[in-house]
Amino acid sequence: MVTVFRRSWLRLQSGIFSERGQHVAAALSVGVMTSLGVLLFKRMIVWVDVFLHRIVEAGLGRVFPWWPVLLPVIGGALVGAMRYWFIAREKHHGVASIMAAVAFSGGRLPYQRIPAKILGSAISIGSGASVGPEDPSVQIGAGIGSMLGQLFHMSERRIQVLVATGAASGIATAFNAPIAGVFFAMELVLGEYESGAFGMMMLSSVTAAVITRGLLGPSPAFPIPAYQFHGAHELPFYLVLGVLAAVVALAYIRALYLAHDWFHESRIPEWLRPILVGGVLGILGLYVPQILGDGHEATGEILRGLDLVPHILIMVLALKLILTALSMGSGFIGGVFAPSLLLGAALGGAFGTTLTHLFPAMPIEPSAFALVGMAAVLAGAVRAPGTAIMLLFEMTNDYRIFLPLMFAVVVSMFISELLEPESVYTLGLSRKGIRLLHGRDVDVMQALSVRDVMDAPPALVYEDMPLLQVSHLFNHSRSHGLPVLDGKEHLIGVISVTDVENALQEDPANLNAPAGNFCSRRLLVTYPDECVQEALQRMGTFDVGRLPVVERNRPRHLVGWINREAIIRAYKLALLQRVSQRHHATHVRMEA
Question: Which one of 276, 373, 541, 568 has the fewest beta carbons within 10 angstroms of its own beta carbon?
């Protein structure tokens, strides 16, 4: 008897401390920590909201009746200060940063920054900025997964899986929808189905959902309207809704990046941008309060069938779309997931209500169209149809919604991808030359930015410098091209060895002529955050061997120098790292 017990205990120990047992423990840990972290984050939003309301109302309530206008302004000032002092600029933001980290960095995220970003997000949402909490929730989970993987020196593939596991747990906690969380992680973070990863994500996601339901109860994230699918004759209406959802999703994507570009090119100080947008939010919020915050309350009102007036819903849709773009572009911290749900609910509610006026004899339920509209706009914006469908299914627990839901989502996805191949998350990466295919980078060169490759210029030429001195610089630097600056240290052109030789062949007296007379002033430049592949293509198109690197917002400010030799060296290193990573991942899979 003792022998049998001892063998069972040893077998249990070997299972617990095996690699598979460690993965199970990691998944459980990520689920528990993520659920608690996201719930604390949600509580922080409430605390910020209550604190700001009490402070401002107590100080100005009697003398300034429009005191709610100041809440987003104060939030903008706090977020602007945090961005200036604590939150450094990042190459990518939100879910896009997680996708890029999984594709290029083996899932290694700078998890040390997450607390400051979460506080900034809580201040943004609590003060009324038009951003959502779901993307920060995903960042909490992904950051926890990456942190555990790095602390315990796991393989890159295991860290990637833990990042996806944390992302799934974040969505599961945010919406009380564990299956939708797993689909989100597979569609957007990993970009593929893998049985081992699926098991870890499901275990972690369910763990997070169990804790969430234990603390908050089993109620869904939104109130669920009564729903009845009356037959195939309703499907054409859902087809039209899918088309309209695609239009809204595309407008949403374009607006977000137009606002980003406008603020990026403007001369408004970064700390001032959220303050100005906060003022706009505060003023408009007095008249249309549905546009403030993450939009969960407004979405719930639409689903409950309250105030379903088409022109009001269209106004809410338009203002929410514009103000979300301005909030994100100005520097408020948050996500684009939740606002897209309000856009879909407003669209579906307006469309369904209009149908009741056009076809009064038909038993049309506007709230059901609002529910399906949420999934259709979400799918068109983030390009995650499985996530959208499962999210709404878990919210309703009614299989009858599947047919119209899938119909509208597929139509929205098809039209959105046809007109804009990139999603709200990947368009920013694509504009930097980074293109992801099934969560993986298409080319190793896209993993490199110009900042990773650039060097200091080998020498500097000033426009009043004589060609004799320039020729000496070429001899000492062993470079075939050098940047030319004016007296204010502004980049004005590039001079090459060929330019000097041609000038001396034309007239030997040019040896004492200033270099500015012979340099090429048709500037071809690149930027530190640009993809190396884009810079290399520009070199090939114009047949040049080097490019000056300048800042985007100061195109005459030289910050570096890049040439083909440096790119080739960096490419070889990146290629070796990629081969090593794939070999190690294969070895880990074989062991598992």
Answer: 541
